[in-house]
Amino acid sequence: MDGEHDVDGAADRVAPALAEPGPYLWRTLRAQASGATATAGKEALLYTDSVLTSAQDRLDIGAATVQVAVGSLTDPAVPAARVVLRWWEYDESDAPLRPDYPTRVVNAQDYWLGMHVDQEFAAVLSLLLGVRMRSGGTIRRYRPDDLAGRTDLVEHVVPTLPPRAWSGRPIVRVPVGGQERVPLDDVVPRVANLRLVSALHAVTMVRAASVFSDALWVCDHEPELAWLHCVTALELAADRYDRDQVNAVELLRKETGKKNFEKVSAEGPEALARAAEQYRRRTRAEKKLYALLEAFPPAAPAVRPASPTWAGLNWDDQADLRRRVETIYAHRSARLHGGVQFPAPLLIPPLVPGAEHAGGVDDVEPVWHGGGLGWRNADLPLTLDAFVHLTRSCLLAWWESLTTATMTSAKHEPSKAGDWQR
User: Of the candidates 305, 292, 246, 291, which has an alpha carbon nearest to the alpha carbon of residue 391?
Assistant: First the structure.
């Protein structure tokens, strides 16, 4: 225990200093912005199967620099090293970054991501750009007094894409939306805005980006897993948005009844707050999701199917989109809780390239056949391609709202010690 003597009679142990938890990328950006002392640097390669472009030799976002590398895209099973990422690590007395640094939190799961700076950066870029991207790991280490540094490939692993489930057309258009060449110039600087949000918001943003990135990586190999990942990414943002909008104590008072509320209240304000937050987290999952979609409605893709007319959705009809998402959520719940696989037609490429749902005009009779069964259009509300776009569009709108609100507020100073535990 902190403050107690060892059996040897050694001096009291010094309790570890409280450090703001959060993603390594978030902490690195905040450390640089606060003027912390850089002690070491690393370089990593990020891999993608998309064509990235930049009008600049190097994009500088403070604690990190990004450069488009020369790589071959001739083998679709082996993504090319298209991005060189360099970043600084900072004096841990200013910004503790080491994985073993003792950070005390009430619930470690709220903050745990299991990724390093380069992996978090790759996940964030994957969401912002709508491309597959993964880090292969560190390739070089350097110091402020030795910028040349030394090569270090011990932990570097070139990521490989799993084979497609279908040898023909892809199930999802990547980059998302059909863009062939993806520019970095306007997107990469937005990563620096991550430092402006709170620790818990940053964790949710990076975690949602990571899950979405996983969906893109496996969408043509395990499309059902991609469906599950996309719903999870939306739920992560939905729960954080709900926490920002809802008074958990008032919710507990309203929905659990007077007797139960008084029983919990008798245990004290801290116990009440914990119980209220647990209740808020564990209930109303679908309601949270639909509230997020209502607050941040997805925009139509930049590239739409030209014909036939049934291949496209009306992205301005929010009620219709909600009904479609409700069906997908029902499929997801049946998969997780009942072992019922997604309908077969949702796991194959659409007949019409870029189609946003299965199509047809008659939902009375089966219009699709798969796995020896007939499926109605009502069971097939969106293609995976459209749902990936919907997920990314909603997440980016939510992300933009957080950074914009912070940038336009009167105060941009980091939170005081201990504020992050509230």
Answer: 292
What span, in angstroms and rounded, lies between the C-alpha atoms of 290 and 297? 10
Helices (H), 160-298: 199-218, 223-245, 248-256, 258-265, 269-282, 285-295
Is 191 within 8 Å of 61 (Cβ atoms)? Answer: yes
Q: Residue 43 in 3-state DSSP?
A: strand
pLDDT tens digits for 17-32? 445 688 999 999 998 9
Q: What is the pLDDT of residues 121-169, one digit of tens each?
A: 999 999 999 999 999 999 999 999 998 889 999 889 999 888 887 777 8
Cα–Cα nearest to 50, from 184, 250, 241: 184
CA distance 83 to 66: 7
Asked if 117 and 87 touch (Cβ cutoff 8 Å), the reply is yes
Cα–Cα distance between 176 and 172 in angstroms, integer? Answer: 8
Instruction: Find tokens 């937005």 and name the residue.
Output: 190
Contact 27, 20 (CB under 8 A): yes
Let me know: does 408 contact 193? Beta carbons within 8 Å. no
Q: Measure the CA angle with vertex 340, ends 338 and 346; round to 5°.
A: 145
The pTM score is 0.85
